[in-house]
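Customer ticket, subject: "Can you confirm the structure for Deaminase?"

Message body: Hello, I'm evaluating your service for our small team and ran a test protein. I'd like someone to confirm that this is what the system normally returns, since I don't have a reference to compare against.
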Amino acid sequence: MVLRKLTYYVAASIDGFIADPAGRFDFFPIEPDVMAAMNAERPEAVPTAFRSAIGLADDTLNRSYDTVLMGRHSYEPGLAAGMTSPYAHLRQIVFSTTLSSTDVEIVKSDPLGAVRALKREPGLGIWLCGGGTLASQLLPEIDELVIKQYPLVLGAGIPLFSSAFEPSQFNLDSARPFDSGAVVLTYTRSL
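Agent reply: Thanks for trying us out. I re-ran your input and got the following:
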């Protein structure tokens, strides 16, 4: 049986933070060169509400993923803006013990078990949208890291992974620099 791949695809600073200490991430630049490349390669990572504004038709095929995973803190900014289903073109799963919703699937316990079951289902890949605590819980099942690293140093904030010391080896597959100074780093898990 071929298992689906879990990819942690996220923006980060040079010093490894995905958000500021309060969870904000709106300071990451929207660089046209990076966005054009990533939107072409991973159109499903564009929230549904913005797809037509950037020229993605509603029927644009998902290339890499058909499922998105979010922690509560990653889901709440869209929710606060009235987006109860931010990625309606994907199966949306939010891991939270406090939220209840009818627009996305809520998983209240055992994120690792839930992802192991998802990986055995047929379909495209699974995108871990964020955040650091959920990424840490799912680290044993993360097959690929795609990090849009921006030339910013934050000094503090929410790290890519926020867990206890647990070395996990990944291999660098590619480092794609952009004129804007960003680099898209792709790693795969070492066997």
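A couple of notes from the result: The two ends are 17 Å apart (CA to CA). The chain has five helices and ten strands. Feel free to reply with more questions.
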